[in-house]
Specification:
The chain is built from 17 helices and 14 strands. Helix content is 43%, strand content 18%. The protein is α/β, with parallel strands linked by helices. Helix 7 links the parallel strand 11 and strand 12. The strands form three sheets. It has an eight-stranded mixed sheet with strand order 5-2-1-6-7-8-11-12, sandwiched between helices.
Length: 364
């Protein structure tokens, strides 16, 4: 398949290398020539995983977005949610009918990007999808080297508009066989694991994060007391999903840590893989890191607003958002990605269902 990948982060390089190795014709776009380095000339990424190290040839690496997008059936956007609006503005002139845009994950970015495209006059009939997590546990070890320590074995995904699910899912599953269909994009947003796992890890580890040069939130930072906070927060997410009549499985975060029972998104022993890789032993700026700007300001703020809209008490989510606001020096309930700021808080359940089903003017 012709696949375009937008971005130059860990997820983008992992997807580019993995999908090219699997036989897809992969084009990679990144804005900065300096950051692309020799990759811009050679198109070769070095991939390392449990099978060893090897070089993978991409079909195209370019700063020319039009060339990368033209003719692509699937466009993957493994960028932080904070970049979705600017990416939409860049994509607007070049999108073509029938393209599927996959946000991994999205934090309801399907709606955000659709609204931006509409405002920029884009009338291409595209379909959005968003997943519950990145398809890969990955980190770049050098400008052209990416290490994949884990791949998703289950990848819950919602399509926007959901009326185009029958069109979108075959394309998604051809590239990512682990995709499991969800009801719609809000279902996908409420499956996002980042806003559940990362806020407790960074907020309850704030002291050591700011004291030590490096602190592994998945190793030293994951203790029984923090896991209990995870469970309480995740229970609120699941209750919101149930109140909105989204069916299971709900992929409880507890399954990520368990060695028995239901398999989570990254399969068995995913947490151990995180710890063993040491790639998450990093310095975190609690005001600027994506765990705060994406998983809290976008994902957790969205969960809080949806819980209010659905009439589900969520004291843990509200409390963590309040603490994060103090840490960030910003009222994230007021400025974050909420239904209020998206102009959706006044919608009835039926109006929201119609929006999720029919979109806002896009879809085949």
């Amino acid at each position: 398949m012709e696949v375009a990948i937008i971005g130059g982060g860990n997820g983008a390089y992992a997807a580019a290398a993995d999908l090219a190795e699997k036989g897809h014709r992969v084009r990679l776009w990144r804005r900065s020539a300096a950051e692309l380095g020799t990759l811009l000339e050679t198109g070769v990424l070095r991939l390392q995983d449990f099978r060893g190290v090897r070089e993978v040839q991409l079909s195209l690496v370019s700063q020319d977005l039009a060339c990368v997008i033209k003719g692509a059936q699937l466009i993957i956007v493994p960028l932080p949610a904070t970049a979705q609006e600017s990416v939409s503005e860049n994509l607007a002139p070049y999108l073509e009918d029938g393209q599927v845009i996959y946000l991994t994950p999205g934090s309801f970015g399907s709606y955000v990007m659709s609204r931006v495209l509409r405002s920029k006059g884009c009338r291409a009939e595209v379909v959005f999808a968003e997943s519950g997590t990145l398809p890969y546990l990955a980190r770049k070890h050098a400008p052209q080297t990416v290490v994949i320590s884990g791949r998703t074995t289950r990848l819950p995904t919602g399509v926007f508009p959901s009326s185009k699910s029958e069109y979108g899912f075959p394309i998604l599953k051809e590239v990512f066989p682990a995709v499991e269909p969800l009801v719609d994009a809000l279902d996908g947003a409420l499956m996002n694991a980042g806003p559940i796992i990362h806020p407790p890890l960074i907020l309850l580890n704030a002291g050591p994060i700011e004291h030590f040069e490096k602190w592994d939130i998945h190793n030293e930072g994951t203790q029984p007391s923090i896991r209990r906070v995870h469970d309480a927060l995740d229970a609120e997410r699941i209750e919101v999903r149930r109140k909105l009549a989204y069916p299971g499985p709900h992929f409880p975060l507890a399954d990520h840590y368990a060695t028995e029972g239901e398999e989570w998104m990254y399969g068995r022993a995913a947490h151990e893989k995180l710890v063993d890789s040491t790639d998450w032993h990093e310095h975190l700026d609690l005001q600027t890191h994506r765990y705060m700007r994406e998983d809290v300001a976008c994902g957790l703020a969205l969960l809080v607003s949806v819980s209010d809209w659905a009439g589900v008490p969520a004291p843990m989510a509200h409390g963590l958002l309040a603490v994060a606001s103090a840490v960030a020096g910003e009222d994230l309930r007021a400025t974050g990605r909420t239904l209020e700021n998206l102009g959706l808080a006044a919608k009835t359940r039926e109006e929201m269902r119609q929006l999720l089903t029919n979109g806002i003017g896009f879809g085949l």
